[in-house]
Design a protein that fits this description.
Length: about 230
């Protein structure tokens, strides 16, 4: 199913995008890894999955559980090995346990650590949730940051509707080197350690997005809890 979906979607993706892709050599060849990505529109997953798959890798992505209740899409997600996340409930930890089992079985996992589409008015990455950091500390799997920019020209944020598919849009996707967490104690229950790992992940993605946008790295970050910027 995973291969079928990618193959079926590839002609459309290639028809509406001018792909500016780099850094794919940073994906490990012989071990499972964790991908973290910024999240701007619902088109992100299709674009980044093609970026990863074109290097010969398949990853299981964590997706909000509401998508698994949509007819047809439920079948596609389930049979493609995607992992449902019951956000904001007592069952949210089940997704992390499923991700740990996948890593142990040699499979790679993809996260949108923001947990949802960015609410930042200027589309910068907002504060990360800690799931990816805790998974990395618990498993020791390398964390590969992937930043992208341009998908918002294809699909509107929040409205889930196509903005303009009658022209090809420049899409920039870049994978960076694995984030160094080797000096941390790998205790996924240690709050300070988790916070530091999370900070490094946020910093890596923020700096890469700034590079793709050709803009300075922001000095503040959007806090979705308060719907306001806070200093870094």
């Amino acid at each position: 199913m995973y291969k079928f979906v990618l193959t079926a979607c590839r002609p459309l993706v290639y028809a509406i995008t001018k792909r500016n892709w780099s850094g794919q050599e940073n994906f490990p060849k012989n071990q499972p890894f964790i991908v973290i990505m910024n999240h701007v529109t619902e088109a992100d997953a299709f674009l980044v999955m093609h970026f990863i798959a074109d290097e010969g890798h398949a990853v299981r992505a964590l997706a909000k559980d509401s998508l698994f209740r949509v007819p047809v899409l439920k079948t596609i997600l389930s049979k493609s090995g995607m992992v449902p996340v019951a956000r904001g409930t007592s069952r949210s930890g089940e997704a992390l346990e499923a991700a740990k089992r996948a890593i142990a079985a040699g499979e790679s996992i993809a996260f949108f650590p923001e947990g949802t589409l960015t609410q930042d008015p200027d589309l910068w990455p907002m504060q990360f949730k800690t799931g990816a950091a805790r998974l990395a500390l618990a498993t020791g799997a390398p964390v590969i940051p992937v930043a992208h920019w341009g998908g918002h020209n294809i699909m509107h944020r929040f409205r889930n509707s196509l903005a303009n598919i009658w022209k090809r849009h420049d899409i920039h996707v870049m994978a960076g080197p694995a984030i160094d967490l080797s000096d941390l104690n790998h205790d996924s229950e240690d709050r300070e350690t988790v916070a530091e790992a999370n900070r490094r992940m946020e910093t890596a993605i923020r700096e890469m997005v700034a590079q793709l946008r050709g803009e300075p790295v922001p000095t503040q970050v959007w806090d979705p809890k308060t719907s306001a910027y806070i200093p870094l």
